[in-house]
# Entry
Amino acid sequence: MNNIFSKNNFISFIVTSFIILVLSEVLLAQNTDKFVFGGYLRSGFGLDDKGKAMSHFMAPNAESKYRLGNEAETYLETIFSYLTENESGATFDTRILLAMVTPMNQTNQAVTTTSLREAYVVAKGVWGAHPEAGFWAGQRYYDRHDIHITDFIYRDMSGFGGGIEDFEIGDFKLALAYLGGSFDQLSPSGTPYADEDFVINKSSLDLRLYDINTPLGILGLTSTFSFLNGDSIVTEEGIFTVTDSKGWSVGIFHVLPIDKEDSRNKLNIFYGTGAAQNYRSVMNAPLGVSVEPGGTYNPDDIIRLRVINDLMINFSHKFALQHAILYQNLDNGLSNNGQFTWFSMGLRPIWHFNKYMSLAMEFGWDYTKQNGGDSGSLFKITLAPQITPSTTAMSRPALRLFVTYAFWSDTFKGKVSPFSYGNQTNGLTIGIQAETWW
# Structure
């Protein structure tokens, strides 16, 4: 495993460490009851069956992978929050979130990337008629929804902007925000963007209605209008132009609570066009669109339909289950080979032997198809004995050993984990990992 700090990333790492030190001094100097320190961490190490640093298994044209025993990086988020409250009960919450990722890699190109992912303030209790409403401005994580077992953050409107949230209208709530995108180097799941996956800014007006109680569960609705003012991707060979684009999207969320501890079923149906097709505050390269010097791409004709069902049940103190199904159809707007289909299904059963010891297994299947291009499947199986504080699916910290085996279609040869298994249609990795949030 080679982890090489480039000059820019080394400077960024030093600056991040300095910020953390300063915030720690602030904590000592101020009222600690109002200061919150939180975060997320996954870290470990794995080997392939040749004894080299592991790389992950992910199907071509899929946007996520089944993550248990399949994460080839260390990722850290540190959250610092300070709450100010006045004599009238109004609160002002200041939040900063710093992130760092270090990939496992078999080349000398691996770098540690640091990022400022949140820096914003939210004020509540300042509107006498609606004290529950919050006003915010800055850069923040905004309305993120994910499938945990694939780490697929399928809606992520995080970015720079401002708005109002938790405004109560009868029995439900409303949120309205203007979001100007984010210049973050990291994807929603915390991995660096690939060189070919351009990321450019756009503007979005996002409206949400949520916490709508119905006889069959809790309903949420999203509606987004996005505008992209074009951009140019400059390469050594020339300039690639992305034209102006407008688009809209709608989404439906339905959460069905289940009468078990921390259990629920969550359904999302999404349809988006043009600049709003990806359910995010930035525009990135759709599947099948590559940066070609001298080329031009018009995003107006992109259409995406996606349906996700995400289930989690803690049946008892002995057994828990997570299950996900995903269907996506994407038209990238190009006349040749522009249609992509992605179907994914997986489950993670967990058997608890006592309060601390458990065995997690994960079975994942991704099928992708490109009209006029490749189609095929990737199957992934992981066995992971683990230690956790309690007997629920999401109990953390978790310390794990894992063994992962994957196999895929002949058409995907050389496109799945190419550094380790470029000429094969199967692979095996073993390793150890810690994962926690606090």
